[in-house]
């Protein structure tokens, strides 16, 4: 099995957008909640029962072909910093990181599939892919789910579907979400209208680390809220349609900003570049917001196209737990801010200033209405 140090060393394919258009939609994620039949769910289970579930599920998940040479650990054997690294990589939830004895995590080598055992449910399985690719992420995870179902019996009701700890997950037990980078909608003050329209059609909008977190670096998660009464295919079709519409509005907003006020766009990207290249102390929030502008500059042509992937790697590397693992010791907030600035300066060392010589009016589509066209 893979060691934690190896997991840290290699960014996942979805983190760097390998082989996908991820300029607006960074990632697509599918999560399935499942429980074993005739066993108390984790929140009601006694310590011994949780351990029995772990002993049944862990070898079953580890034995699957895709988990060969993967990472597998009981949570009690991981430090709080190691668990927080996995939260920052979106491989486990904050709730799972708070658990210890009787819980475990199994992660596929490329980090595109991860499994939480004894989180809120006995199994929380997820698949992540770069770009807008929810259907492919679901198909991958559905095959994985079928293999697990061949080895254990799930708690299932013909009328209610998969039984879960939280009633909002009943039915398919599926949560589908995409992470979007929406700086132009934020800069042009249209983000509120667009997100309100998304909420009105029954979808959830959250921050960078999911429920209860704020949007940093102009990153937003959009996901389904209902899981009962509709098929997985229906949920995915609607969600992909809405996310594609939001991405189109962001594209149009980027073009219109360049058309209407190119000097302002140049200024914002230039300031972000200047701060990141020369700051000696920088906190997470400020760093993420400036990296967002650099990422925008890479997409618009102010900076080389590979700047987008570089920013995506830095978005992960400068998180608090990643910094502490990188440094090999616990750090105070002040020490983290100094090391974060040092890492960013080092990674951006060869990045030339934004090129504004050939900025022209692009004549982008004047379509910035928040109407998502969803009945």
TrEMBL record:
Main enzyme class: transferase
Residue sites binding ATP per the record: 27-31, 90, 124, 175-179, 206-211
InterPro entries: Arg_Kinase, ATP-guanido_PTrfase, ATP-guanido_PTrfase_AS, ATP-guanido_PTrfase_cat, Gln_synth/guanido_kin_cat_dom
Keywords: Allosteric enzyme, ATP-binding, Kinase, Nucleotide-binding, Transferase
Domain Phosphagen kinase C-terminal: 24-253
Family of the protein in this entry: Belongs to the ATP:guanido phosphotransferase family.
Reactions catalysed: L-arginyl-[protein] + ATP = N(omega)-phospho-L-arginyl-[protein] + ADP + H(+)
Motif (RDXXRA motif of the pArg binding pocket involved in allosteric regulation): 336-341
Its job: Catalyzes the specific phosphorylation of arginine residues in proteins.
Pfam families in UniProt: ATP-gua_Ptrans
Activity regulation note: Appears to be allosterically activated by the binding of pArg-containing polypeptides to the pArg-binding pocket localized in the C-terminal domain of McsB.
Record-given protein name: Protein-arginine kinase
Gene that encodes the chain: mcsB
Record EC number: 2.7.14.1
